[in-house]
Amino acid sequence: VRRVTSSDATAPHPPVPALELPPTADGFTAQFLRNLNFDGGVTLADASTNDRYLALARTVRDYLMLHALADQQRQAGAQAKAVCYLSAEYLLGNQLDNDLLAGDLAGVAADAMAACGIDLDELRRHEIEPGLGNGGLGRLAACFIDSLATLGVPSIGYGIRYEYGIFRQTFEDGQQVEQPDAWLTLGAPWEQPRPEAAQTVSFGGRTETVDDAGTVRSRWIPEWNVSAVPYDYLVPGFRNGRVNTLRLWRAKATDAFDLRIFNSGDYEQAVRAQTFAENISKVLYPEDSTPQGKELRLQQQYFFVAASIRDFLGRLPEDFDLARLPERVIFQLNDTHPVIAVPELMRVLVDEHGMAWDEAWAVTQQCFAYTCHTLLPEALEVWPVELLGRLLPRHLEIVYRINEEFLAAVRARFGDDEMRIRDMSIIAEFPVRAVRMAYLATVAGSRVNGVAELHSQLLRDKVLPAFAEFFPEKFTNVTNGVTPRRFLRLANPGLSTLITDAIGDGWVTDLERLHELEPLAEDAAFRAAFAAVKAGNKRRLNEVLQARDGMRVGDGHLVDVMVKRLHEYKRQLLKVLHVVSEYEGVVSGRIALADLQPRTVLFGAKAAPGYAMAKRIIHLINAVGSVVNTDPRLDGRLQVLFPPNYNVTLAESVIPAADLSEQISLAGKEASGTGNMKFALNGALTIGTDDGANVEIRELVGDANFFLFGMTEPEVAEIAQAGYHPAAFYQEDAGLRRAIDLIASGAFSGGDRSVFEPVVSNLLYEDRFMVLADYSAYMAAQQRVDAAYADQDGWTRAAILNVARCGFFSSDRSIRDYIDRIWHTPPTT
Ligand code: B1N
Prior knowledge:
This protein has about 850 residues and is an alpha/beta fold. Among the domains are: about 1-80 and about 105-130, no CATH class; about 485-815, Rossmann fold, CATH 3.40.50.2000. It contains 32 helices and 27 strands. Strands 3, 6, 9, 10, 13, 14, 15, 16, 20 and 21 form a ten-stranded mixed beta sheet that branches. Strands 24-23-22-25-26-27 form a six-stranded parallel beta sheet, with helices on both faces. Strand 18 (about 425-430) and strand 19 form a beta hairpin. Helix 1 packs across helix 2 and helix 10 (about 340-350) crosses helix 13. Bound molecules: ligand B1N. Ligand B1N binds next to helix 6. GO terms for molecular function: glycogen phosphorylase activity; pyridoxal phosphate binding. This is Alpha-1,4 glucan phosphorylase. Keywords: Carbohydrate metabolism, Glycogen metabolism, Glycosyltransferase, Pyridoxal phosphate, Transferase.
């Protein structure tokens, strides 16, 4: 036992006698009680669940802080290149178990809580997850910071400390109702405010030109400022003593701002101004994939990147030569949301540091890299010139100049090809003049990457073809990944133990070792143990669902799961049509009840509050569920569950219990998907299209262990080209017709045909995502699923092979790919 004392030369701080490394139960208990008494101001006897939770969280954080301080000492004066991950979203999930695991504190914490007579599980359930993201993009950022810390990459995550994260979803009469996510109200024990490190961020105003010793320079005279206050979260690596920082910015009114108005005697206005400033970090925009061009959203984006750039530059030595900035940092742009950082760095270098434009541009190009996460044209962010000019006039000038020089280079290479110039201009002219942020990022970044092989190829061929031709060397791929710590080790303790008993625990940080499980697929005893783990996970899910929503998965049911944001391109409607077809088949007598494979279909999905069709689809799922679940003719053999408010915490119970993973987007629309990886890694079989990372999953697990169906992306392009007529599929397929007719008849809406009429007519006459064209292939694939599930042992064999062959999908591998292909940061330790 090493006790940290002042005589210890490596001690990072003065003595804290009770905090021992390695931790002991006594030391942990003492620190816990200290936090309860002095931080919480209560005795153990009087402490509420919340008091106990806060003190426990503080204690865990204290131990991590010990590592963080030592880490800081180790890195003090280090000159290594750092990764600054710029992301508007981090969907972190619960912190307690994650930090107990990473810090190897679970044992002492359990002992300490037992010694205090506290139920640790109750405190676990008390935690509210920080939902500071919408879906896959935000969760990817959270997985990446976990891997960066585990790999020991010098890095900082920068983002926004939203006061309200993604809304809490409830259902009223089957329809989504959004409730505010007041995640901070009971205290925020994991964060550390650092008011002394606040940055000022300016907005509005105008520019003026000044004659600076013969050179004409532009200068920004902003109109208003806000203060950006950092809140730091510790990001521990897995048992490696490394702790990185996630720095999230909160907007506060600046004193100067308040004073100016206050002195003018208008107190009310001063208070209003404060609210105005603080609105910037008030709420996460609940849009996944289809951002609305709202002014406040642009304010959020600039707010956090301007503060982050200043913060990072402030860490460099006073006399640092900014021409060498690329040796010290790479700013990774997580989609277009932080791309306003590009003109901001230019402005800082040119206007504030007097660097020549060309030199600043060379530096900037090396300091950024851009990850694109989409293929949907409507998801590519554009900012109207009018808005950008009003909010950030100097940045607009800088963008214009970048564009001018870029288009001059295009002309130099291709001549005055006006079509090409219009296609490649960073400024779109229609429907309004607007800055295309993806183009700006592509021109400015040293690399552009997609998030799965197919996505990166389509990015080159379809989304940015002119840029891929102009800058072929910039384009690369990094297939997404997920952290094995949270999504296997923590979420699936049963399977984790089984794996570790078989091959040791090295897989937690070296996931490719799961390959060593492959021979065990042929071992009957291992298969039995694996099946028993799955059954246990279903029981555990039932406990969670019972307590949370009064729901349960049927005994002996195939657990068929579709959890993801609600979006037409993801095709929850295709899944609904399958359920309705099975229901209709039994009710009409075409399917004998005894022939129906018992199934529970579990949905989880939030819809953007302004996305009317997505909300109707949620309503339809709930409506179908309430009919199917209670119709005695089905005798409970087909169940539809839709627990509200799907989030990271629920995912951790659902994914390990799943038999079948639904990944059924229209080919060419899902950039990658990451849920698909989590399911396969936990031994669910995928039914999926040739889309996103499904392609790579299937290649790795093998055709025999994956239910592929549907059109390929080139086939989709071909029928789109020829003119797609969904009604023709309806006419030709009797089963499809019966399912759609049943919905249209009002069978799921108490006879009211109007309720789902918009869904039905959209399917018949528009069907942008070709649900009807893939219906029959999907139904056939589900028949293959039923047949395969009938052979339980064969199914388990396939499930084991899925686990064994999915080590590639670790976010540790993704981060190594970023290092090799994009960041070129020093080797990790
Ligand atoms: O990013 C994930 C991918 O796995 C998914 O396929 C992709 O859909 C998702 C605007 C987005 N793309 N774009 C967004 C999120 C919020 C927002 O306001 C767009 N999310 C994705 C990780 O690569």
